[in-house]
């Protein structure tokens, strides 16, 4: 009797053992498929970051060579007027960029979610298309449109016998850059909101319609509260991108003359320090200082909106 019980008890144990060995085998295969990405991630992201951080802790002069400086470069960065001016400038861009981009993206998404025609599909593609254009090409295109010498805007104002505005001057460059970034990123955020709206149960709309809610009330009281988490995360993405503003000022700088200097944004300042003045150690410190500011801004915003967004 005991032999029979033990005999019947062994197969489940053997099955568990074979299942565990099969899981380990699958895990090994998983690591094999993950290895190429892990190698690329380590070589092209982790190691450069570690090396850049090591450089930020050193100074290199012709007289004394390379020496360990600790946090001296970071103290210098936060006392650097050009770096802090650039931070204030990108903060001002964020105050303008983020509401405009998110507001337009929400309006487009809500309208396209409510319209069920072929024109809506074409409009969705048309709004998203600028994001598919590389940032450098987009900035070059807008630089041509803004050009006070040969751009089509000049020809248009000449046709009207009116003086053409210089959209690349110190007084207008802020608005010109705002227009470029809004044009390029609004469609990307619109797609995120549209996808979130598509996941909402249509029965909620039907119930609201039965209760007599208008389309505007449905949008404000049902749709927006449900996609709040998507809105918060999108604002974080926009905030991070704005604080790292680089491509558009870098491309337009030769056309804008003195309107965009070498320290117009912190990223542009770090780039010029490294590749124009060979101050690689200080440029690394500037980059990590900017990363710290971006991290703190993102954390503060997420904590401030945690209750409304439902994020943990």
Q: How does the overall form come out from the CA principal axes?
A: globular
Q: Count helical runs.
A: 14
Helix content: over 70%
Provide the CATH topology: MetI-like fold
Q: Termini, distance in Å?
A: 56 Å
What would you say this structure looks like, in words?
This protein is mainly α and 312 residues long. It has one domain (80-309): MetI-like fold (Orthogonal Bundle). The chain has 14 helices and two strands. It has helices at residues 2-56, 72-78, 81-114, 118-132, 135-146, 152-159, 173-198, 202-210, 215-226, 228-243, 247-256, 266-275, 280-304, 306-309, and strands at residues 58-61, 65-68. Strands 1-2 form a two-stranded antiparallel sheet. Helix 2 (72-78) packs across helix 13 (280-304). The longest helix is centred in the N-terminal third of the chain and has 55 residues, at 2-56. The N and C termini lie far apart (56 Å). The relative contact order is 0.11.
Short note summarizing the structure:
78% of the residues lie in helices and 3% in strands. With 312 residues, it is mostly helical. The longest helix has 55 residues, at 2-56.
Write the layout of secondary structure elements.
Blueprint: H1 2-56, E1 58-61, E2 65-68, H2 72-78, H3 81-114, H4 118-132, H5 135-146, H6 152-159, H7 173-198, H8 202-210, H9 215-226, H10 228-243, H11 247-256, H12 266-275, H13 280-304, H14 306-309
Antiparallel strand pairs: 1-2
Helix pairs in contact: 1-13, 2-13, 3-7, 3-10, 4-7, 5-11, 10-13, 12-13
């Amino acid at each position: 009797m005991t032999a029979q019980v033990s005999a019947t008890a062994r197969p489940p144990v053997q099955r568990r053992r074979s299942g565990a060995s099969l899981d380990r085998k699958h895990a090994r295969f998983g690591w094999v498929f993950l290895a190429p990405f892990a190698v690329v991630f380590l070589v092209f992201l982790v190691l450069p970051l570690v090396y850049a951080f090591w450089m930020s802790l050193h100074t290199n002069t012709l007289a004394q060579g390379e020496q360990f400086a600790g946090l001296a470069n970071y103290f210098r960065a936060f006392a650097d007027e050009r770096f802090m001016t650039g931070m204030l400038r990108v903060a001002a861009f964020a105050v303008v960029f983020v509401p405009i981009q998110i507001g337009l993206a929400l309006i487009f998404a809500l309208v396209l979610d409510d319209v069920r025609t072929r024109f809506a599909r074409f409009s969705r593609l048309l709004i998203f298309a600028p994001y598919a254009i590389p940032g450098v090409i987009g900035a070059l295109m807008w630089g041509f449109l803004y050009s006070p010498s040969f751009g089509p805007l000049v020809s248009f104002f000449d046709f009207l016998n009116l003086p053409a505005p210089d959209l690349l001057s110190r007084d207008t460059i802020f608005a010109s850059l705002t227009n470029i970034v809004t044009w390029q990123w609004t469609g990307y955020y619109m797609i995120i909101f549209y996808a979130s709206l598509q996941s909402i149960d249509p029965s909620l709309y039907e119930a609201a319609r039965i209760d007599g809610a208008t389309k505007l009330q449905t949008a404000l009281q049902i749709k927006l509260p449900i996609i709040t988490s998507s809105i918060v995360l999108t604002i974080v993405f926009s905030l991070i991108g704005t604080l790292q503003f680089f491509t558009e000022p870098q491309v337009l700088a030769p056309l804008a003359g003195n309107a965009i200097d070498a320290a117009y944004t912190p990223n542009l300042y770090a780039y010029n320090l490294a590749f124009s003045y060979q101050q690689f150690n200080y440029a690394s410190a500037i980059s990590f200082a900017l990363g710290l500011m971006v991290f703190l801004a993102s954390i503060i915003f997420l904590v401030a909106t945690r209750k409304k967004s439902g994020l943990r």
